[in-house]
Amino acid sequence: MTGRPADRLGALAFAASALLAGGNAVGVRFSNRELDPLWGAGLRFGAAAVLLLAGTALLRLPFPRGRALAGAVAYGVLSFGVPFAFAYYALVHLHAGLGQTVLALVPLVTLLLAAAQRQERLTPAAVGGTLCAVAGVAVVSQAPLRASVPVAALLALLGAVLSFAEATVLAHRLPHLHPVTMNAVGMTAAAVLLLAGSAAVRDHWVLPERAATWWALVYLVVAGSVLTFVLYLVVAQRWDASRAAYVFVVVPVVTLVLSARLDDEPLTASLLLGAPLILLGVYVGALRRPPTRPPADDRP
């Protein structure tokens, strides 16, 4: 990273988004205790979309049309609609720290998808990192499977990983939009998708009665959606796709601390052994940069 202002802005946005996103999975767990999953997700992103659309109007940002509008809708479906439908379902059955640890695979899957779509190159390190991360997932999965957690919950998390990763790759192909505008359109599209799914499965559309659920919902809307994803898109537009997705590796550290403190998540041996394997695999496969060679004229 250089000292250019864009890099400093990207680094600050990265740190802030990772910190704020750390509370998301915990907030979803609290929301799921009173609200049906798809209804809670749709309510969250519907409220966030209203705030972002208001911000777009106040800032007098141009509204996208044509290809830019279609791209923003596709980004929203892949970044918010599909993955959070999966994640909300999974977090009914899994603790937040475990769920966020599996989501740490996003940078590695992003690199694999970017390589498949010829945005980045696939290296031997990426292959080795993939094997290490897969071993980590196998380890962390042992405890929930022994506890009779539905396999579908783990598969849903992997579906969320795939969708998040493709959204990051897609962001590099879309016409450039202001992060507020992009997220306003994207979250609107996601809210429509999530609420349609909620209606299809006949969720109960009720507002929370418990104070804890209201606090969780407010956090998820303001900090976990509006601020987190605007900041993350700032990073994604400035850094390589796989590097921007590194935020998914930092977030589990914050989530594990909050989940153990607020949701009594047990720090099992499989989690404590498997999580480092996942993080190591992601680092080796997607994030580590080989040392650059000096120019030929500078070599001794």
TrEMBL record:
<feature type="transmembrane region" description="Helical">
    <location>
        <begin position="122"/>
        <end position="143"/>
    </location>
</feature>
<feature type="transmembrane region" description="Helical">
    <location>
        <begin position="182"/>
        <end position="201"/>
    </location>
</feature>
<feature type="transmembrane region" description="Helical">
    <location>
        <begin position="68"/>
        <end position="91"/>
    </location>
</feature>
<protein>
    <submittedName>
        <fullName>DMT family transporter</fullName>
    </submittedName>
</protein>
<feature type="transmembrane region" description="Helical">
    <location>
        <begin position="244"/>
        <end position="262"/>
    </location>
</feature>
<dbReference type="InterPro" id="IPR000620">
    <property type="entry name" value="EamA_dom"/>
</dbReference>
<keyword id="KW-1133">Transmembrane helix</keyword>
<keyword id="KW-0472">Membrane</keyword>
<feature type="transmembrane region" description="Helical">
    <location>
        <begin position="268"/>
        <end position="286"/>
    </location>
</feature>
<feature type="domain" description="EamA">
    <location>
        <begin position="9"/>
        <end position="141"/>
    </location>
</feature>
<dbReference type="InterPro" id="IPR037185">
    <property type="entry name" value="EmrE-like"/>
</dbReference>
<feature type="transmembrane region" description="Helical">
    <location>
        <begin position="97"/>
        <end position="115"/>
    </location>
</feature>
<feature type="transmembrane region" description="Helical">
    <location>
        <begin position="149"/>
        <end position="170"/>
    </location>
</feature>
<dbReference type="InterPro" id="IPR050638">
    <property type="entry name" value="AA-Vitamin_Transporters"/>
</dbReference>
<feature type="transmembrane region" description="Helical">
    <location>
        <begin position="41"/>
        <end position="61"/>
    </location>
</feature>
<feature type="transmembrane region" description="Helical">
    <location>
        <begin position="213"/>
        <end position="235"/>
    </location>
</feature>
<feature type="domain" description="EamA">
    <location>
        <begin position="153"/>
        <end position="284"/>
    </location>
</feature>
<dbReference type="Pfam" id="PF00892">
    <property type="entry name" value="EamA"/>
</dbReference>
<keyword id="KW-0812">Transmembrane</keyword>
<comment type="similarity">
    <text>Belongs to the EamA transporter family.</text>
</comment>
